[in-house]
Amino acid sequence: PTITTQLLAHTEYGVRSLLVYGTDEQQRYYLPEMAKGNMIATACITEAHSGSDIRNIETTATVSDTDPNTYIINGKKMWITNGLNANVFLVYCKTKERHTSDDYDDRFSFFLVHRDMPGVTISPPVSTLGLRGLGLTHIEFKDVKVNAIHHLIGQLGEGLNILRNLHGYVRTTLSG
């Protein structure tokens, strides 16, 4: 089960998200490296307070005051399969879009975040009774700056639909 779960995290969340929702530029940059095994991807979805309630997450990606293409990610994700070895994380965020100075519209989006970006902190492996090879970690994102042009997967606010589609692929694969 460990190898299957690791492969699913990489292929169904990482590779498939890029194949279906990635820009041409993202596909050219990430997919060859993922196919060679030089880059491992995983999804960062689960949080301590929201559990499986994906609409109740606390991780945010807020548009920068100085650059409308820059988003600042803050939050904590837990139980991240491949977190120990992944180079790139597909981070599910509540996207804060500013409409007026004090008014925000909450939507959900996915951003690609590299392990070595400033503000990314990865915990040591989580101790479990089984499945120790999963490389489970908790990951904190503190003031991580990403450029939407290069790091947004799909369209802004499309994250909930992307997540539902990716979960559908994972469930279909597991049922086989």
General description of the model:
This protein has four helices and eight strands. By secondary structure, the chain is of the alpha+beta class. Strand 2 and strand 3 form a beta hairpin. Helix content is 31%, strand content 32%. Strands 1, 2, 3, 4, 5, 6, 7 and 8 form an eight-stranded mixed β-sheet that branches. It is globular, with a radius of gyration of 15 Å. Helix 1 crosses helix 4 (159-175). The chain has helices spanning 2-21, 24-36, 148-151, 159-175, and strands spanning 41-44, 60-63, 70-80, 88-98, 104-114, 120-122, 137-147, 152-153. The relative contact order is 0.20. The mean pLDDT is 87. The longest helix has 20 residues, at 2-21. It has one domain (2-175): Butyryl-CoA Dehydrogenase, subunit A, domain 2.
Strand content: 25-35%
Number of strands: 8
In whole angstroms, the N-to-C terminal distance is: 14 Å
CATH class, anyone?
Answer: Mainly Beta
Domain tally: 1
Largest pleated sheet: 8 strands, mixed
- The residue fraction in helices comes out at 25-40%
Determine Rg (CA atoms, Å).
15 Å
Classify the fold: give the CATH topology. Butyryl-CoA Dehydrogenase, subunit A, domain 2
Rounded mean pLDDT score: 87
Q: Number of helical runs?
A: 4
Q: Specify the CATH homologous superfamily.
A: Butyryl-CoA Dehydrogenase, subunit A, domain 2
Write the CATH architecture name: Beta Barrel
Question: Quick one: overall form?
Answer: globular
Oligomer: single chain
Give the helix/strand class.
alpha+beta
Q: What are the low-pLDDT stretches, counting only 5+ consecutive residues below 50?
A: none
Q: Helix and strand succession?
A: HHEEEEEEEHEH
